[in-house]
Fold each of these.
Amino acid sequence: MPTRRADSARPATTHDVARRAGVSQATVSLVLGGNPRARVSAQTRERVVRAAGELGYRPNLVARGLVQRKSYAIGVMVPDLSNPFFLDVVTGVQRVAAEAGYAVLPGDVREVSPQRHLEALRARQVDGVILDGFGALALHEGALSGMKVVLVDEPSERWPGVASDAVGAGRLAAEHLLGLGHTRLAFAGPASDVHGLRMRERGFVQALRQAGVALPSERLRRVPPTVSGGLAAMKSLLGLPPAQRPTACFCAVDLVAAGALKACLTAGVAVPGAMSIVGCDDVELARVLTPELTTVRVPARELGARAARLLIRQLDDEGGSAPRAGRPLPVKLVVRGTTGPV
Amino acid sequence: MPTRRADSARPATTHDVARRAGVSQATVSLVLGGNPRARVSAQTRERVVRAAGELGYRPNLVARGLVQRKSYAIGVMVPDLSNPFFLDVVTGVQRVAAEAGYAVLPGDVREVSPQRHLEALRARQVDGVILDGFGALALHEGALSGMKVVLVDEPSERWPGVASDAVGAGRLAAEHLLGLGHTRLAFAGPASDVHGLRMRERGFVQALRQAGVALPSERLRRVPPTVSGGLAAMKSLLGLPPAQRPTACFCAVDLVAAGALKACLTAGVAVPGAMSIVGCDDVELARVLTPELTTVRVPARELGARAARLLIRQLDDEGGSAPRAGRPLPVKLVVRGTTGPV
DNA sequence: CGTATTAGCTAATACGTATCATCATATGCC
DNA sequence: GGCATATGATGATACGTATTAGCTAATACG
């Protein structure tokens, strides 16, 4: 009890392996460490590998990180992980990060402020950060100084980013509804200044204007990007006098569309008979609803995957110049059950 | 270009602070490091704090972790983060972990095997792991050897854990449906050997048996714990000859219930008129559906929070004995729109 | 006044790995 | 055989922090 022997519960280190294999710690590091092109004879290599196996050696990434000044971890921050869209983005990041040997520290911002979260990530020496859904708000802070950053759906001069064709998304929704003969249209979108969402609205409005269709402000609803936000928006739209009441509504976020649909169904308004609804994102929920939601698919996973590739390339190229963003990812209209002719 | 001066972009270290404050590195560590009860004069403390502020010093958690043999990070593994229930569990963990100064590395298992993920967590020197929804499968592996572990909804002799009253959940669902006069009942649940879900089934079956109501195997459906699983299950139940067709169904997972509901609605089967449906979990989705889902609320966040507290107490008590699990968390029937009399 | 105690600070070391300069040995070539 | 070179392994050092033993100066005590 008082004396504590060499604790076998303590994980084996390169020193332990070296001792057992009869070589130096440096040699062990060369054999088991990163670069496989180290000059080590096949014989000693074999001895080291065997000893490592026998001791159950696992490299300590913390120690490695300290000396290499690299943690092989990246952070990703989104506004709300409970929105499946953002979860998909993170999943996309995770997939390519895992392949490249990077861990991902996902950050929701519901619980803790972006600034604090960024500080935590920095303290843990993440090699870079992917930011999705933050307006100029968080970006102008010096909180990002000295960090490698990739933005999602947020154009910037300072940092590279990836984006989806948000304007196109709004446009597609508008054209679809116009094509069905709707002229009294409504829009429900988040009040936030998230750039991507603003662009969806802009695309929608632009297409309407080009078609000579008006979007009066009483049919514009700015609500939180949640189901209850959509619920409130549609309730209020349904309360308009018949002459102003829309026959179709574009919701810039699927969750909002889900709320809008629910408002209609509980109010006895037939969908798509009396009200057509178009969402945007194409989250899994869209196919769970009845009727299934017509929406614009935004390739969330691909968005995340590209962001991760962009960041990791930047990291592996050892301070190489930040690569420029590619073209916006195309979006696609997916017609399902919530839209129909007037 | 060739010569590289002291790079001011490199974050300040305790040495830098020490130099600027005119004290030793050790003193800086005493002032800024963990324990605030270090004996340092107010004067030097002030000098150090100011110097740190001027240099924008941030402690390097990697280095600290190396010497303290503690990373202040915990891992949490769930089967599927896209299931909001598990996301809620993780959120609960995150909340209390953040308070205690721990970071959380959430792990989905859809992309990478549990074993690989555990290895990654171990390599990053996490201080402990919270495991949810893994059967005996992953547990009997030696992959957990030497790790501090807390289980969620999975009883074990070896590791402490927290649990919800899964048997009670099944029971509540049964009693509710029996109370409405249903006697031809069905069950749809995951085929997996996840213990918590099995117990939900057991509670349901037990309560039926006590009421003298049979649950013949043709009204038992084992499907993946997803929406499409529920869809398939209900489709197949609706295909039964009228004499065998159930008038109500308990789905052990809300997602399955959502699929079941959709199957009914698209088949023109009135809910709750011709079919009552009870889910389990009470995820947000339950209130998005129309009609809203009657379900049994399982306190996911609280489950995660307790698991985190259990783990962190274990960690802070410096190898203290693993605390025993408390009582199962109570569950609660939430009657909404998918159940009604026969 | 001499000694014991304490407060306040520092030098040295450790954590586990990567990496570089160095050294010993083997091989090539004329 | 003698020299240049390539190969294979090692010792030493660094990464940024925590921590302990120990040192100095000041204070307490008899």
Amino acid sequence: MLDIQILRNDLAGVAARLATRGFVLDTTKFEQLEGERKVIQTRTQELQAKRNSASKQIGIAKSKGEDVSAIMAEVANLGDELKQAEVQLGEVQIALQTMLEVLPNMPNESVPVGKSEADNVEVRKVGSVPKFDFAVKDHVSLGEGLGGLDFETAAKISGARFSLLKGGLARLHRALAQFMLDTHIDQHGYTETYVPYIVNSASMRGTGQLPKFEQDLFQVSFGGTSNKAAMVNVYADKFLGDGLVANDANIKVDVENWYLIPTAEVPVTNMVRDEIVPLEKLPMKFVAHTPCFRSEAGSAGRDTRGMIRQHQFDKVELVQMVHPDESYVALEQLLGHAETILQKLGLHYRVVKLCTGDIGFSAAMTYDIEVWLPAQNTYREISSCSNFEAFQARRMQARFRNAQGKPELLHTLNGSGLAVGRTLVAVLENYQQADGSVVIPEVLRPYMGGLEKLAG
RNA sequence: GGAGAGGUGGCAGAGUGGUCGAAUGUACCUGACUCGAAAUCAGGCGUGCGGUACUCCCGCACCGAGGGUUCGAAUCCCUCCCUCUCCGCCA
């Protein structure tokens, strides 16, 4: 969420910066709502002050045994007026909040301006494109040849966009995750975490998946029919008053739901939601290995072959909560931590800085790491490392106590370190041999019982 | 699933309709005493929002969450969430 103060003070500036990422800010609507808010809030608070002082006087008078009918008469008509003002205030505040919650973050000044993926800037290439003196196979053919990759059975069990691993491939998948975790814990100073895979809507709201991207998520029902929260816990009730119902067309109602995490970023980052952490606890660095669940609603027909784009995949996620002054240094470090994994695995990759038109909703700056896939003859995203500045922290009220002792929003970052499924794909394709076998990278062999090669 | 107890400021813990944003203790900060420290004494010490006003002023809101009753709610009523204890079931 953006700081409403910045919108008040420099609306045109915000609009200009959001425009670089292709977002049109409705400044007229904001100014109108903000104007209304100011009038209504001032009036409401005046009425509340009046009620408070009158009530206090009644209390004092009664304790002295004096007659209170005169003061009572004075506030007799206050009730209705106040209630009406409070309802109006609630409505305008919800409208403002609803507008704010769907505004994307402002890109950092140094993010290259561009419209799409095509305008992203390559930062560096590490390693070189591997040469093969035979016709390369893709990971699907390799995996099926090795007898460990079975999409048909996965489809029978679940449906499209699921995969099933067996034997050496399943173990290689596990080895990759273990190797990544161990590296980040032992060499990069991250604290290992095990977190819930089902989260509430407040957590999704905190990191920015809600309210705008609900269609990308899997929602979880409770006990088969209604989930417990659908028993309607409507936070807007206070403002809606008696006359309005929850599904009133103009008012967004927040019903408490459960969702499967689309990334460990959600549960891990939300650890600090509604917290004020001591200054000396920063930076906080956490790593988690979790499955991730995505509906892929908007990508029908894309990457349908293989395990590149699945409803369920594993990812090792790096998350940091840092002092605002440190977040860009931390981003470079976090990126380096992710790159280390690829380097140790001996995989060729490049780092790309996303342009304003391609960065995600919550991010102020993002680097993607793209690994070379020989069968596709191209680079594919295997990690995305972002600095969210205070965007998520403001939604979460995640703060630290600064040197002056005052609560201040901290900065959050995260990055894949790495996507396990795609790393498996990269290892299979890059380490394939002419006979269809796959050499196991040396760093993984300790996790594979010393095995050097997967062969059918 | 059954029965019971409870959710108040960093922590502990009072407060069952009225000058309560909230006693007291403790932790923490400042000052005094001291060569210094401890002890002691004095003072300070929640968060968010608004008023063109970050550290000065004023107001509003917040005692798990959301509703309700009332001139007035931490306190009474309703719903939900969470925690703890015992029993049952279960990996």
